[in-house]
Amino acid sequence: MTSAASELPESHTKNDLVNLLKRLSSSQLRFVTRRIWTDTDAEAARQIGVSPRTVAFWKQGGAPIDEVVRLMKEDGVLLAAEMFRRALLDAVEVKLSGLEHRDVRVRQAAATEIIERVLGKPLQRQELSGGITVVLDGPGAFGD
Does 29 map to a domain? Predict the structure, then answer.
């Protein structure tokens, strides 16, 4: 691409993008992900169920939507990482709600998964049976 961002050092562009992403709301992040693949703001707004006037209001309020879209076209991985980071608390709540489920098997599974995520899986001891034969022979054993 021939944009101003491509003239910046890669780390500078990524730092800028990370900082800009932190300034967007969840709805604005959803808009940006659609805007990358659409021709107009109005089309992207309709796809996420907001009014094009809402997007205009966001921009007038200082949301750096256009700048994020420009940078995202160069590095979409950062947007995905930010969206996952924001969804993490919701995902943790879902796991924790399993501890309160009426079915004891669901509670047990949730408890086990949480414990293993925090503490790691318990060591599994394995017994080996059978024999191993080691033959040590002198020079010439391998055709030397």
Answer: yes
